[in-house]
Write a structure and sequence with these properties.
By secondary structure, the protein is of the alpha/beta class. The protein contains eight helices and eleven strands. It is globular, with a radius of gyration of 18 Å.
Length: about 240
């Protein structure tokens, strides 16, 4: 069972990105490459927010290229996490179950379990402004997980966090996605983040998304384009 980019071609202004590859379910995949290389563009296409100029996107063999974003098997979490400031943490999480927040008793209990799972069980009544950056990120992660989609996509979600908190969030995401048996796709500019959380890395550079390969193998013997990005002299 796979995500397939079948001869995909994406354009944004004069920029073109091509992708012809498969991602097997259950992997934690880092998307790594230079700024402006197309990492976020590829996730947006998979989420249904960007229409390809040609090619197809397949999920488990079914063509979802024209499927509405709400019906795709993915959740996309951005760096700014899009919490509503007038809602409590519990209400923001509840949006993952019902956009109108008319939750049943069972659904309220589900929200409480989600809060506990990300270590915020005592903070459900707090609004985003009353939470730290890391706590806000935990709320966004809990909401994304409640959407119960098999693919979780993170677009540089921890770039604004300090080193210690970022490591904590990376470990939390890894733990939760493994427990849910979800596929993780995470955009990052930091090779150390890719090494910590991903078993595979998908290099995106020079207008092409390359097939995913084992992360440690890639970092041990990076191709020239990755060596330039990492600032290493060519071997």
């Amino acid at each position: 069972m796979t995500i397939t980019f079948d001869k995909l071609r994406l354009m944004q202004g004069e920029f073109t990105l091509s992708a012809d590859l498969e991602i097997e379910e259950g992997h934690k995949v880092a998307l790594l490459g230079p700024s402006g290389g197309g990492k976020s563009t590829l996730l947006s296409a998979l989420a249904g927010f960007k229409t390809p100029q040609s090619g197809r996107i397949l999920w488990r063999g079914d063509d979802i290229t024209g499927t509405h974003p709400a019906r795709r098997p993915v959740t996309l979490l951005f760096q700014d996490h899009n919490l509503f400031p007038h809602l409590t943490a519990a209400q923001n999480i509840g949006l993952g179950l019902r956009p109108d927040l008319r939750l049943s008793g069972a659904e309220h209990a589900t929200v409480e379990r989600a809060l506990a799972r990300v270590g915020l069980d005592a903070l459900g009544a707090k609004r985003p402004a009353e939470l730290s950056g890391g706590q806000q990120q935990r709320v966004a992660i809990a909401r994304a997980l409640l959407r119960d989609k098999p693919v979780l996509m993170l677009d540089e979600p921890f770039a604004a966090l300090g080193p210690a908190l970022k490591l904590e969030m990376l470990d939390l995401v890894a733990e939760i996605t493994e427990a849910a048996r979800a596929t993780l796709l995470m955009v990052t500019h930091q090779p150390e983040d890719a090494i910590r959380i991903s078993d595979q890395t998908l290099l995106i550079a020079e207008g092409k998304a390359h097939p995913p390969v084992d992360t440690k193998t890639l970092m041990a013997d990076p191709p020239e384009v990755l060596q330039r990005y990492l600032g290493r002299p060519p071997s």
